């Protein structure tokens, strides 16, 4: 008999594997159908290896070995979910790591709403159906000075529904210098195409003048759109049309004006030594009919798309059937309400919102964290590693203030024999993984987003 057939005969059946004591323990922990499928897959792989002539050791076909591999496979699948990591990259709003951390008040609101029934669309006073966005809308109106507000599940959806409501079947005039792409998944021309509006470009990449808008306006113009170029800057020989000028043109021609801020700030970051990010309230005061911005960027809340503006424009957007398709669930509403209440009520909003706190931390505080980390990290890694506290720069991230850097402190880790990539890989295998960055052949741990020194001590 060929060796492969001998090996195939040694393969235990699924029933035999799962009827064992260890197999029964797996079935007690997990759904029988799930364990059975994974066992069938594993035995099928072994069978295929044998048929293809690959060496398969006799021990690999034993029930105990198969059960061990089966349990390891199930354990690996369960671990392949969202994993907590330590963000020491120096990018405060890191899109790949989930952007803004939520304030404690928002986390508590999430927990309360997740585990209980809530008055999402129920009016306690009248005992009748209510509107899920009502409280958030009221807070946004008070914080921005807008006549009205609404909320959807992200800023791309906010832009899409606004364009569809205000300009479907019409032209939207945009400067060529503002036809942005963010993250490879948000291209303004493509969003506009899906909205049913037609893009009408004016000006050039680096220079757009008021006359360009004036000449482009005709009977089919539905909207003048200004886009905050949040992930790049045009410098040198460049000119753009500011919002006050665009609003004046829109009023003269009776065409609404919309601005997509991308990030959008509710507090003046300039007061804390940072470059000024456009304030939503200022854009409303200038006269924009609609302003859109994100909830999980500079605002420091959950992912959401916020729209504020005139009653006419926002009222029409809220009635658009698309609104239901892109509406927020109860968890987003709960976290967003709690975050906005901090802006309205807290005497220390910067201290209570983690993103704002990270932006504004003084270097002395970062140095204190670094001094506390150095001896612990040296003891953990061993004397072969060279560890030093150094100056560097952080960035806000997620397209906000892309050319601006914030002074920071970093811990630089090097080794005579191991590369910076190898050190980074070792830190990523810690529990929880620690994500830093590499610069000048050194692995850097940026302290701007590290509030507890113990977070930077890897555990394997």
Produce a short descriptive summary.
By secondary structure, the chain is an alpha/beta fold. The chain folds into three domains: 3-79, no CATH class; 86-95 and 359-456, Aspartate Aminotransferase, domain 1, CATH 3.90.1150.180; 104-352, Aspartate Aminotransferase, domain 2 (3-Layer(aba) Sandwich).
Overview of this structure, please?
Helices cover 43% and strands 17% of the residues. The chain has 460 residues and is α/β, with parallel strands linked by helices. The longest helix has 20 residues. The radius of gyration is 28 Å and the shape is globular. It starts with a helix and ends in a 14-residue tail after the last strand.
Instruction: Extract low-pLDDT stretches.
Output: none
* End-to-end distance: 48 Å
Number of helices: 19
Judging by the overall fold, what is the CATH architecture of the largest domain?
3-Layer(aba) Sandwich
